[in-house]
Design brief:
single chain; about 250 residues; alpha/beta; TIM Barrel; 8-stranded parallel β-sheet; about 15% strand
Length: about 250
């Protein structure tokens, strides 16, 4: 089985004590490739170095909307410069988060649009963070066209999902799919076209039900696959092959 974790923060401090062991266990589970999105400039060098030294790890560079207070206008310029020299697999994690109280929505929007411009100029896909902002994101993507990407941890409507698919995006599903009470999410995973679905863990967050209360890990991606197989009534092998094909297609992986 060959699986791709399309969204995992393996560079974060939570993995400093056992990162190499986690990567080895991933390979034993068939999780052979992992996409690691950045959240701010502070972590770019560590993330890039990790991906250089470990086979099967792929960097994405971006400025996460949750850390808006950490970002400066010159960071977008630096993003463009690093993209030109490092050639990451995607721009991310970027987007809009209107779930946060008292956030500066206009500044979030400006930062998002600037990073979409970097992605468009570099012809790279984007990894989207979206909370309470699907309509705003979709409106922006129709205006600033990029080479598709992935809507990470998708939890919108079927109608919104189709709009993402029409724009060349895939939809990420992970640990929350393992919870039986996630009725809306499980229904989405069952009803959406398989060609639009990719797997992710978002580790160290969004832990599957069997590991509730623990640090999430990319080695748990097969549990997300098993949940997808359960809700769709299809075999894990078939779904592994198709979701991996989807991920390689949208991310331009060999």
């Amino acid at each position: 089985m060959d699986l791709i974790d399309t969204h995992c923060h393996l560079d974060l401090d939570a993995f400093d004590s056992d990162r190499e062991a986690v990567i080895q266990r991933c390979r034993e589970q068939g999780v052979n490739r992992i996409v690691i999105p950045a959240v701010d400039t502070e972590h770019w060098d560590k993330l890039l170095q990790l991906c250089r030294t470990q086979a099967g790890l792929y960097p994405a560079l971006g400025l996460h909307p949750i850390y808006l207070d950490h970002h400066r206008s010159e960071h977008v310029t630096q993003l463009g410069e690093r993209v030109a020299t490092e050639r990451p697999i995607a721009i991310g994690e970027i987007g809009l988060d209107f779930y946060i109280d008292d956030t500066d929505r206009e500044r979030q929007q400006a930062l998002f649009e600037a990073q979409l411009g970097v992605a468009r100029d570099a012809n790279l896909p984007v990894l989207l963070h979206v909370r309470k902002a699907h309509d705003q994101i979709l409106t922006t993507l129709r205006r600033i066209r990029v080479r598709g990407g992935i809507a990470h941890a998708f939890n919108g409507s079927v109608q919104q999902a189709q709009q993402y698919l029409d724009l060349g995006f895939k939809l990420g599903f992970g640990g929350m799919l393992t919870y039986e009470r996630s009725n809306k999410l499980r229904r989405l995973a069952r009803e959406l076209p398989l060609q639009g679905i990719v797997l992710e863990t978002d580790a160290p967050d969004m832990t599957p039900v069997a590991h509730r209360g623990e640090r999430n890990s990319p080695e748990y991606l097969p549990e997300c696959l098993a949940a997808l197989a359960e809700v769709r009534g299809e075999t894990p092998d078939y779904l592994a092959a198709q979701t991996t094909r989807n991920a390689t297609e949208v991310l331009g992986l060999a």
